[in-house]
Each structure stands twice: as C-alpha cells, then as structure tokens.
Design a protein that fits this description.
This protein is an alpha+beta fold. The protein is built from six helices and 18 strands. The chain has a single domain, classed as Fumarylacetoacetate hydrolase, domain 2 (Alpha-Beta Complex), CATH 3.90.850.10. The longest helix has 11 residues. The chain binds manganese (II) ion. The site of manganese (II) ion has 7 residues, from loops.
Length: 230
C-alpha cells in the first residue's frame, strides 16, 4: 500500500529526560474550568457541568525552546489562555474518577490561543466555535513531565506574563473540575486513546496579545514556555 502523497507529519512533544517523544493524537479542551474566568466570560460557574471542545493535533506548537507564533489571520483579538496540559497514556471509555489518574502519562504547560472575536461572533450566532479555537499554532506546549518524575499536579501556581507583566496568576487547586473528574467526564462522551491531550481550562485574566509581545507561561513543577508573537 502506498499513499497518494506523503501523510501529514505526526505532531509530538518532547519528554523531559527522555530520548522518546510523545505522539499527539487528539487535543480536548475543558471550557470555563476556573470560577473567576467563568465570571469574566459572563457565566455563572456554579451551575454548569463541564463542556469540551477540540483542537487538531496539528495545532501544537512545540515550545521545548523559545518559539515564534505567527499572528493568525482573520482576527483582531488574539487571546492567551495559560493551561495545565494532561497527557493520556492509556485511556478507555467510562473511566471512573477514582481510577482516572492512572491513565495519565504526564503534564505540560500549554496555551489555548483563541481568536476571541471569531469565537464571540460564532457564539452569538449559535454557530460552532471551531475557527475561534482550532487553527495552526493555537496550542503552544512545553516539555512533558512524566507522572513518574513530578507526580500529579493538583496544587501548583499557574501564571502567565506578557512582556514581563503578570496577566494570569492562579493555582491548579482552583479547577472547578479536577484532572480526574475531567478525564471521567470526557470519557463518558468519547473513549480516550493513548496520545490524547487534555487542556484543562484557564484562570482569569485572559487578554489580547499583539505582534512583538512575548508570553511566558509557567506552572510550578513543569517549568515555563516562552512564545513570541510575530
Ligand atoms: Mn481554554
């Protein structure tokens, strides 16, 4: 069997202290998973069950070293959302929350870059968010740290600076739906597979970046990523 042309390359993430790389399958994202961010988006955090959206694996921007993100087309309002990324090693469907963390390979720092104007237009029109969230380089991500080396990340500072000024500053313990609960909920809708990533939501403070800005995103225990908008 041959392909009619070369298939798209497999996107992957570096793994700390390993020669191997983590092949990215799908990227699931949890919406509005910090109360203060839900409020800044005009929603009541107490009443909503978790909801999910996706980005293609091709959205990954490798930030193992300082990276350049090209300002995407068709937007005038590109927002940063710093997030804890969970990498799935095994998976399955209807995973119990009590068992969910056993499916985790490791964790990374990530950014859910968002064309907020396109997202809001779609939202207001009752259309899919797709082009607000899923586009090239919309998922900058750092090196994966294995559970074996860093344990589970449930209480760690999460911060984003733009040009050395703090924009987002919270703690993973503020997640409305924990990593385990997010895995359990997600697996009710779709069987999780090895290589899946879950972006767990962003704390308050989302705002725009423009060409020339430098984002520095960090989670205690997972290091930092540096992304310049070009
Ligand atoms: Mn997000």
């Amino acid at each position: 069997m041959t392909y009619c042309f070369a298939p798209a390359p497999v996107r992957s993430l570096a793994i700390a202290d390993s020669e191997q790389r983590f092949p990215v399958n799908r990227i699931f994202c949890v919406g509005r998973n910090y109360a203060e961010h839900a409020r800044e988006m005009g929603k009541d955090p107490e009443r909503e069950a978790p909801f999910f959206f996706m980005k293609p694996a091709q959205a990954v921007l490798d930030c193992a070293s300082p990276a350049l993100m090209h300002y995407p087309p068709q937007t005038n309002n590109l927002h940063h959302e710093v997030e804890l990324v969970v990498a799935i090693a095994t998976g399955g469907r209807d995973i119990a929350a009590a068992d969910a963390l056993s499916h985790v390979f490791g964790y990374a720092v990530g950014l859910d870059m968002t064309r907020r104007d396109l997202q809001n237009t779609a939202k207001n029109a009752g259309r899919p968010w797709e082009f607000g969230k899923a586009f090239a380089q919309s998922a900058p991500m750092g090196v994966l740290h294995t559970v074996h080396s860093v344990g589970h990340i449930d209480n760690a500072r999460i911060q984003l600076q733009v040009n050395a000024s703090v924009r987002q500053d919270s703690n993973i313990d503020q997640l409305i739906w924990s990593v385990a609960e997010s895995i359990a909920q997600l697996s009710m809708f779709e069987a999780l597979e090895p290589g899946d990533l879950i972006m767990t939501g962003t704390p308050a403070g989302v705002a725009a970046v423009v060409p020339g800005d430098v984002m520095l995103a960090a989670i205690d225990g997972l290091g930092a990523i540096e992304v310049q908008v070009a």
